[in-house]
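Input record, target 12 of the design panel.
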């Protein structure tokens, strides 16, 4: 059974070939999404320029996949995992100087905020990772405060991972390099066809 990370869902919405092939191969397998992914998708839809059509896509996804809620067990695993990573010296919100500097330069040049707040989420979110050569990264911004963080793993990522661990699901993500820090988490990457074992 598989839990689709937000990036995998976005790749599928964008029609990425390898993801579509893997989805076809697993058509009869139980495929699930975390409520966190659903939250991120709704946020993206309401930030986009095509709100109505993107909301319709999300409603279709809700009918197609079982939505996994955040349970008490998931909450406990989240807290334990985050504490373990911090004790091990891992950075949950690690700043990349090179990439954050480039974002600041882009914002000064264009006068526009970069990252999630810059354009339609569905069309630009993943493309932004590819343009920066960091397909496994995730950019979060608070342009009002001028704060930029390039997160290896955000709290949302850790909650999604906790949902996968709680329900004994394989997490389908293009963010394997960061998620593989989490002990016991099973991973696969459907942006590769056939997917390699991490």
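The sequence produced for target 12 reads:
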């Amino acid at each position: 059974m598989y839990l689709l990370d937000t990036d995998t869902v976005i790749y599928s919405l964008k029609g990425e070939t390898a993801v579509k092939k893997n989805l076809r191969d697993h058509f009869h397998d139980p495929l699930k999404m975390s409520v966190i992914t659903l939250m991120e998708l709704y946020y993206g839809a309401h930030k986009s320029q095509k709100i109505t059509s993107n909301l319709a896509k999300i409603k279709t996804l809700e009918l197609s996949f079982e939505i996994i809620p955040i349970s008490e067990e998931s909450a406990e695993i989240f807290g334990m995992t985050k504490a373990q990573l911090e004790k091990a010296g891992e950075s949950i919100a690690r700043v990349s100087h090179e990439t954050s500097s480039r974002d600041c330069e882009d914002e000064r040049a264009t006068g526009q905020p970069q990252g999630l707040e810059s354009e339609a989420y569905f069309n630009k979110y993943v493309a932004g990772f590819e343009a920066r050569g960091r397909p496994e990264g995730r950019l979060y911004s608070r342009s009002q405060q001028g704060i930029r963080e390039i997160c290896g793993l955000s709290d949302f990522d850790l909650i999604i991972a906790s949902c996968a661990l709680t329900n004994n699901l394989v997490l389908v993500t293009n963010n394997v390099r960061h998620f593989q820090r989490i002990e016991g988490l099973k991973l696969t990457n459907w942006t590769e066809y056939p997917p390699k074992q991490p």
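Confidence is low (pLDDT under 50) at residues 93-151.
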